[in-house]
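ok trying again, last paste got cut off:
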Amino acid sequence: MKPTIAIVTGGSSGIGLETARALRARGVTVYALSRRPAEGEHLCCDVSDAQAVRAAVDEVLAREGRIDLLVNCAGMGISGAMEFTPDADARRLMEVNVLGVSNALCAVLPAMRAQRSGRIVNISSVAAVAPIPFQAWYSASKAAVNALTMAAANEVRPWGIAVISVMPGDTRTGFTASRRKFEAGDGVYGGRIARSVQKMERDEEGGMTAQAAGQKIAKIALGRSRRPVQSLGLTYKACAMLAKFLPARAVRFLLAVLYGR
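nice, full thing came through this time. structure:
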């Protein structure tokens, strides 16, 4: 039986690195796509550059002849009031978090259609269904990933390709330290920007380990479930369920209590 060939974007750190490790431990041949060096087979690539992504995918195909799995982990975060977030930074976040997913997905689809098989796992966030105050752009980008996943899943279903979105919650990774923080306007907002970000960072530092998240994502990636949107951990499954069934004003109130005061 031929080994599974996988591409993991953002595979140099955090959830991407741990997902790549977990897949390799299960016998998968993994190519990490990232701007920085990564373990194992690595191709230098900025996911926001569609041509670079296609070139990297073509290189994997030239070496292996097929691609069975894509896991889109590359992403970035910014925090701050929408009013004071620079347009260039909001645009960059959307280019990485949304177009980066689309670029990789579109690059692997021709090969997966030819194979009439494949799985694509896009890493989203519980913030997609529970948008966090002062993380509006990040939340919007992850909501877009969920929408893209749902649409693409139906588009490619006739070829036996599954597209899944996985929503982690708070996770201990370097993502917390690397988040771009915009504190402008904190005085106007009564110090709520700083308080919200501090609360969010405490939650992340006390959250699931990146290794645990990677193990769970690898299990989903190699499984058979086609459920298009899945949460990691019982707590966040409950959060996603509440966000789905509670009235929008109730969800807004709960998020205001947690992160908006």
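cool. The radius of gyration is 18 Å. The chain has a mean pLDDT of 95.
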